[in-house]
Amino acid sequence: MASALRPLARLQLSLGEARRLALAGQRLLASPLPVDVASVTRLVEQIGYLQRDPLSAVAPSHLLVLWSRLGNFDRSVVDRALWQERSLFEYWAHAASIVPTSDFSVHRWSMRNYGRGDTLRAQSLRAWVEANRSLKRQILNRLRELGPQPAGTFDGAVRAKFQSSGWNQDRDVERMLFHLWLGGRIAVAGRDGRGRLWELTERWLGPAVAGGKVSAGRLTEQVAERSLRALGVGTEIQIRQYMGAGRYGRLEGVLERLVQRGSVLPVAILGPEGPLPGRWFGHRDDLEAVRRLPPPAAPPTTLLSPFDNLIIGRRRTQLLFDFDFRMEIYLPAHLRRFGYYVLPILHGDRLIGRIDLRRDRTLGRLVAVAVHGEPDAPAGVEVGTSMREALQRLAQFVGVEEVEVGQLVSTPPAWHRPLRS
Q1: Where are the beta strands (DSSP E) in 34-102?
Q2: Residue closest to 227 by CA, chosen among 208, 246, 205, 210
Q3: Where are the alpha helices (DSSP H) in 262-400?
Q4: Cα separation, 56 vs 76, whole angstroms
Q5: Please, which residues have CB within 8 angstroms of residue 231's CB and are 6 or more apart in sequence?
Q6: N-terminal to C-terminal alpha carbon distance within the chain
Q7: pTM value?
Q8: Per-residue pLDDT tens digits for 145-158
Q9: Per residue in 255-284, pLDDT tens?
Q10: φ/ψ (deg, to 5) at 316
């Protein structure tokens, strides 16, 4: 094995190889498998998390991320994984997310360190929690006695208001629940029309909570390797940000140890104008496999959630895919360049355009308000056909019958007829 690894010590990758590594790490090159709780759980274990987001212009983002990788599937599988099998649970990764229960030890470190430190923000939070001990006690006692409860159940007197200019101003009960959630005391045990149901973490996740402890150093190594394998290739900052900076100690020293062991290797990625900036790394097992990942003969086309793990790092997306993606959801309409809810178009190993998409529930249509092509998008009619098929699959997944295509902006003429067919 050692001799087999020696040629990889200073590996140079083409941009195409780096892209395929990134797509393979995100399970975007694999053929769809039969979908059940086990296969969905394995996918989330590989990519690390599914970001939750309240926006649902087409479908909830976490379901779109799964759809891009699995094709059409019964979405109740996700509910079974969360609320029955409990192989997944909700916690904070890159953001509010769905994460594997097998990763509980990864998140335990963040739970135990939440709210600590000497920053003014941490000190202010601790003072607020101390002033509202009665509310905290009421929440924990009521959950202990009654089991899963919605936020509206808790009406304890608030002694000190939480001062914020954000979502939690004058929402002290929700803020205390959020504090107990990030601290690992309570868990999301379901959702109803009013929002989350809360339960004691130790009762909801049981054996996962009592799992073996991992030292901070070893934990950082594990999460760094997991993040790198999900990224395919990445710089230190990309690895640090992927599953949340709070899970890492001194990452630079950890990466050096992994390089010395040979499990992680430094790589150079050769772009059209020379090596990409930054110090890049790849996992040994993935680098050995990349040469066996030829471009697909007939590149598939799919659409990506705006919050998809592949593109959540905007600078990384620009470097690897030459794709400048910014969400315009929160911009006034007159300042948007591409639209409100825009899904990038992935064709093979390239991002070739974007679609401003809506689900019209009243008329039962999936509406592509506008389709934008990238300047170097492939121009064949088969590309337009593949995009239309992806739209039809997505329409079926979200439960509508028709696809309506509106404006075609900077798109190759050969796309027009199949897209409008």
Answers
A1: 50-51, 88-92, 96-100
A2: 246
A3: 284-290, 314-321, 381-398
A4: 17
A5: 22, 25, 238, 239, 242, 316
A6: 54
A7: 0.92
A8: 999 999 988 876 66
A9: 999 999 999 999 999 999 999 999 999 999
A10: -60, -45
